[in-house]
Amino acid sequence: MSNVPHPGIASVELDEFKYDNRIVRNFAIATILFGLIGMLVGLLAALQLVFPDLNMDIQYLTFGRIRPLHTNAVIFAFVGNGFFTGMYYSAPRVLRTPMWSPVLSRFHFWAWQFIILAAAITLPMGLTTSKEYAELEWPLDVAIAVVWVSALINLIMTTINRRTEHIYAAVWFYLASFITVAMLHVVNSIALPISLFKSYSVYAGVQDALVQWWYGHNAVAFFLTTPYLGLMYYFLPKAANRPIYSYRLSIVHFWALIFLYIWAGPHHLLYTALPEWAQTLGTVFSVMLIAPSWGGMINGLMTLRGAWDRVREDIVLKFFVVAITAYGMATFEGPMLSFKNVNAVAHYTDWIVAHVHVGALGWNGFLTFGLLYWLFPRLYNRPLYSQKAASFHFWIGTLGIIFYTVPMYWAGWVQSSMWQEFTKEGLLKYPNFLETVTQLAPLYFLRSVGGTLYIIGFVVMIYNLWMTAAKGKLVPDETAKAMPLSAIWHASKNEYWHRRLFERKPLALTIFALIAVAIGGMIEMIPTFMIDSNVPTIAAVKPYSPLELQGRDIYVREGCYVCHTQMIRPFRAEIERYGEYSKSGEFVYDFPHQWGSKRTGPDLHRVGGKYPDSWHYNHMEDPTSMSPGSIMPRYEWLLEEDLDTTTTAAKIRAMQMLGVPYEKDYDKIANAELTIQSKEIQERLKQSGIKADEKKEIIALIAYLQRLGTDIKTEK
């Protein structure tokens, strides 16, 4: 329903204001720069699974350290900056007002880039919490919260000061994204610091896994999905010169999506030690998610009705169509993967890697590329430098996605089939996990080819946009005029309820969005924390010794959780291969949990006592000496660097504050007990013919590995 002006509207003076294109330009440049870096790091990580020596024996370049750098760079640097680029362009225009605070806008830009640079330094150094997609240590977590809330305030105040009566759908998604990510980040990142670069999650074991994947799944939902849906609702109609297909569908899409998404996190933990009721909730809501997800896809694609002939010629629309299609594919596959029978096949395999990259490369990547191709000619007031180069980028990027994902889907099937196959005699056909790994090398290489093709297209885009900017001139400010909100006549009482309740009231919209996303997390987490039967205790499970605790921190630092899980599922094949399935009570002292999400190497939950100390020592020095054909890098520095025992007392005190039942004043004798256990391991190594220094980090890591899974008695 259109707004009806006052009878004397002609006498109302229009407000004149300017849109700031410099902040848009800055975020666009950051998107391009960090996107290229993040993808190159990802390519290096992919190639290391084919050529393990590519880390060049440099501890800062091992797969375990650079894989979190890759995910953080692509998610928060590339997609994050891409979202901010589109938001700072579109939000002022649909609200017909400049951003409320240019100072907050600039603070948002520079502080966000500082956080990204800090992540690029700290993650390769091994300063990590090991929490998936939230690996940054506590000072950076605090910085993220401050920057995020400042941007949220700026957006809310801009919405309040708008010069249009109603709030367009794109802004709904922006507001919901900001408020939900703030909630997710704060709850998941609560930690107890022991130094400037080390902290422990306040959650342990089962509770930590639930909180982590409540965050992890919804970081995908509210950082990679809903912000980009907001961008789709603005830039697709602009590029197609068509209104969005259905206003009512956008309402259903928005509220159903944000309400249902938040419940789905437990589907990442099917068949684990998480309580069955929580797993079931995750599955049910994941399946329901397909309706609002495809509602958004349909709304996007149907917007192009009558404009499909332009898709053949318009490079922006080509990127948008593939992006929306990839979104539809990923959001169909996600609910399918939440079915237990499908999850049993796909989880911990490269199938999940393929699934994630359909969304990342197709949905986020291609929508970002289309957005940049649309923006640069307008920012620099000249046509795109080369349509042919943009078309080349589109086709080679599409081929890159295919060459990336198809081998990874195939690899997932190969992995799962080999892990679960038995002989006629009832024995595992491939008892040695390494037999699976060696079979995947050609598929990993093809994945690298796909990544290379995608990056080539990215580089071509950079050149194209650079030349567009070089031959044009930035339009720093765009002058616009609009009626003040106070002069706009409010529509009749018969207007649609959603406009009356929410689209006039940005604070109400924000608060109700927060309530919608908070409900699911509360219902899933509160019983898991408050009802003891969800995590039955096991009397035999004791706290880690000081040396084992130090070794666990080395395990975290080196990113071992990236390739190894510590969660044996109740499957015949896994019990036969690894031992007794994992129990929830075994993880009560794991701050945070180390269940992992991918098996590039075998599960380690029952590795304690499986091999002698000498095997672990030799394996870390040269993995191929113990496992011929291994793609694990050498960790020779663990044999050379001294263990920092100055932190032992602080770590024990932190564990006590978190509820670990160490004796009173145990921190004062912790290093003495650490030394005793170190000498015991040193002596066992000596008996095996290995002369090792008791003060080296390798001793602590061996202590931790030999402890894993030994708290309860198991039979082969």
UniProtKB/TrEMBL annotation:
Its cofactor is heme; Cu(2+); heme b. PANTHER family: CYTOCHROME C OXIDASE SUBUNIT 1, CYTOCHROME C OXIDASE SUBUNIT 1 HOMOLOG, BACTEROID. Heme b 2; high-spin binds at residue 355. Cu cation binds at residues 217, 267-268. Keywords: Cell membrane, Copper, Electron transport, Heme, Iron, Membrane, Metal-binding, Respiratory chain, Translocase, Transmembrane, Transmembrane helix, Transport. It comes from Dyadobacter luteus. Its EC number is 7.1.1.9. Residues 27-530 form the Cytochrome oxidase subunit I profile domain. The keyword Disulfide bond does not apply. This is cytochrome-c oxidase. The chain crosses the membrane at residues 27-51, 71-89, 109-126, 138-157, 169-194, 214-235, 247-264, 284-303, 315-332, 352-376, 388-410, 444-466, 507-530. Binds 2 heme groups per subunit, denoted as high- and low-spin. Binds 1 copper ion per subunit, denoted as copper B. It holds the Pfam family COX1. Its main location: membrane. It catalyses: 4 Fe(II)-[cytochrome c] + O2 + 8 H(+)(in) = 4 Fe(III)-[cytochrome c] + 2 H2O + 4 H(+)(out). Pathway: Energy metabolism; oxidative phosphorylation. GO terms for molecular function: cytochrome-c oxidase activity; heme binding; metal ion binding. GO terms for biological process: aerobic respiration; electron transport coupled proton transport; respiratory electron transport chain. Belongs to the heme-copper respiratory oxidase family. It is found in: Cell membrane. SUPFAM superfamilies: Cytochrome c, Cytochrome c oxidase subunit I-like. Residues 546-709 form the Cytochrome c domain. InterPro entries: Cyt_c-like_dom, Cyt_c-like_dom_sf, Cyt_c_oxase-like_su1_dom, Cyt_c_oxase-like_su1_sf, Cyt_C_Oxase_1, Cyt_c_Oxase_su1_BS, Cyt_c_oxidase_cbb3_su1, Cyt_c_oxidase_monohaem-su/FixO. It is a multi-pass membrane protein.
